[in-house]
Amino acid sequence: MTVQNGIIKTPKNANNLQLILSRSWPIIIILLAATQCIYTGWGRWGDLIVDTGRELEWPRRILQGESLYSDLRFNYGPFSPYFNALLYRLFGVKLEVLAGAGATSALIAGFTLYALGRRFISRLGATIVVLSFFYLCAFSHYLQRGIFNWVLPHTFAATYGMLAALLSLYFLVRHAQDGKYTDQVVAVFFVGLSALCKVEAFFPALVAYGVWILATDSISRRRAVPVAFCFFMLVAAVYGFFSIRVGFPLWRDNLAGVANPGSDYFIKFMMGFQDSYGNLLYLLYGICYLASAIVLGVGTATIVKRDNINPYLKSVCIMLVFILVAAVPNFVLSEPDLLYQTTPVISVAVLLFLFYKYIRQSAERSKVLPDILVWIFALASIPRIIFQVTPQFYGYYMLPPAILGLGIFLYSYMPRLFKDLWGYGAMVAIGTALLSGTMIGTYLVSLERMAKKTVALTSPRGEMWLTPTVAEMFIPLMEKIKTFPRDTKLLIIPEASAINFLVERQGVDGMFSHLPMDYYGGFTDEAVLVRYKMSPPELILFYDSYMPHFGDARYGVTYGRKVYRWIIQNYIPITDLREDAVLLIPKAKVAGRQ
Predict the structure, then answer these.
(1) Engineering a disulfide at 412: which of 6, 110, 292, 585 sits with its beta carbon 3.0 to 4.6 angstroms away?
(2) Do 519 and 560 contact (CB within 8 A), yes or no?
(3) Closest Cα to residue 408, out of 442, 374, 380, 440?
């Protein structure tokens, strides 16, 4: 074996069996890891209360004949709900259908990351990148809410969109390296598909493609512009169709809705601005950790490359350093995701170096451009989480490009400092320790979260595992709801439309949640009240929810006060008011029975 550009090369005279084994072991490990993740976590992803119900209900109600954006509020592009509706039509309206689609999208994204990684780094590095994606993002349960994963995500628009964006990057990089025109066409197709999903996924794909357009030669640029224009017109036609059908509410009440004032606190929280000092300090810790690991790796590589040291001692030295680097964030700092907080700094630093090299060394431009595309894509993926770049919250779908970037940094750039096999091995060990330490630490947290879900909630539409606390709060109410006719219109406040889905009771309208960000445009407190007066809910499930991510907002106290007062005046509880959640029916219905 030899080391070339930071990659171990298999000898050309290797026999066929050696070649097959060297090329197939990463695929086997990736498939085994995905199988283990799915087997361990199946049924534990998703959340009865938050977000999951909307993802289950949107495609189901589209199949019923309701229209997206007019009958059903939706803040993202139309691809994911219509695609999931197609899956329902083909395989049945069940939770497991979408969970299977989510797991499949995660597996495809994993192999896309592997294919991208292999264009820059070794099989080992590309495999570790994919495993990090699986255990940190795709199949994780890092937070209490099981919605930040690719199986049952907070929105499939995010995961489908990022998958399309990653595919666009792969074909764009392949075109930049190999020059095949068809790759460029396919890349533009996936850029367009990401535009039909979610803006946070579309943005990095668009930026990377724009950089390529500016940096490529004039002949490629002239060939690219007509293709890009055609796909742009197709995307514009899709949104134009909905604009004509829905009108101004398409933007006011749906696509631009997340930018309304009710989202301000939430957006700042997700970006890390609500605790900017703490997150900056966290960034400093991450930089110190990464720098210390690199210095330790360089020192170890400098020592083990000496010929007068016993190979056994070299191996022990590398192993001890590996254990130390992997253990620090988990057992010393108790911050397993510390490494990824450094992503913005590393991305900017690497891009500055690559741009400098691109400008000053014109002969190297074609070699540097693919690296630039990956790093600009990674940096453009994280503005929404810029001060807390971790697998928590939205990092589950924004972080994969950063994982790839770190993989290239640790398995390509750093090992190039050493040409000998032992020095290279020491630097690879440090990179593996950094990524695997984070991966193992965060997944242990996920396993702990999953283990707490011990109560199975089973219905004809699927099974979901709950914590005892959630089960005790909602399962008795769900059994009570089942005693009402199937056509009963059920309103749940502030959110838990997964209950609508699992007990097979229709929602009142196209609002799937009643959060501070939902009360804007054509759905102000007054407008929602008018709707409910015209078509009153026949059954209401209400629970008091603490919302720290919305500035400690409470329904009926800081927002939704008019609707809340109307409910109190016109509805009467039929379950114990002393419980955390209560069912209510119209007073007029009780009076009619009497």
Answers:
(1) 6
(2) yes
(3) 374
